[in-house]
Amino acid sequence: MKELPGDVFVTGQLLPAQMQALAEQGVMSFINNRPDMEAPLQPLSQDLEQAAQELGVDYQHIPMAGGLTAGLIEASEYAYTNLPRPIVAFCASGTRSTALWAFSHVENLGVDEVMKAMTNAGYSLEQIRAPLEMHLKAKS
What is the pLDDT of residue 66? Predict the structure, then answer.
C-alpha cells in the first residue's frame, strides 16, 4: 500500500478479508476504481460493497475502464470531499486510483505537489502533468 497526502492510501485489488483487516486498523472508507469482470476471480463490486457495509465503513465504486472522463473526475472529487478518512482507493495496481486522486486534489495542492506526491508513492505518471494543468486551469 502506498500513501498519498490527505490520509489516502492506494493499492491493488482488495479482497473482503483485507478490507476487514484495514477497517480494524482504522480505515473508514474504500474507493474501488476497478471495473467488474476485468480479470478472472476478481471480486465483484457488489460483494465488496456488502463487505464494507458489514464492517460499518463507506464504499464507493468509481470504475475506470478506459481513459479519464469528466464524470470519473467529478465522482472522485465528490468521494474524496465527502468520505471519512482514512481512505483506501484500489484498482488492479493502484495506478488508476493514484491518477484519480491526482485530479481530485490538484486544485488544493497544485500540479507540482500532486506530481511530487505520486512520485514519492512510487507512481511515475508524468504523462498526466499536462492534463492536470488543463484541469486546474479549467477550474480557475
Answer: 83
Q: What confidence tens digit (pLDDT) does each residue in 58-112 have? A: 999 999 998 889 999 999 999 999 999 999 999 999 999 999 999 999 999 999 9
- Identify the residue whose cell numbers are 482504522: 26
Angle at which helix 70-82 crosses helix 95-109, to 10 degrees, equals: 70
8, 89 Cβ separation under 8 angstroms: yes
Q: Where are the domains of the chain?
A: 2-139
**Fold of the CATH domain 2-139:** Protein-Tyrosine Phosphatase; Chain A (3.90.190)
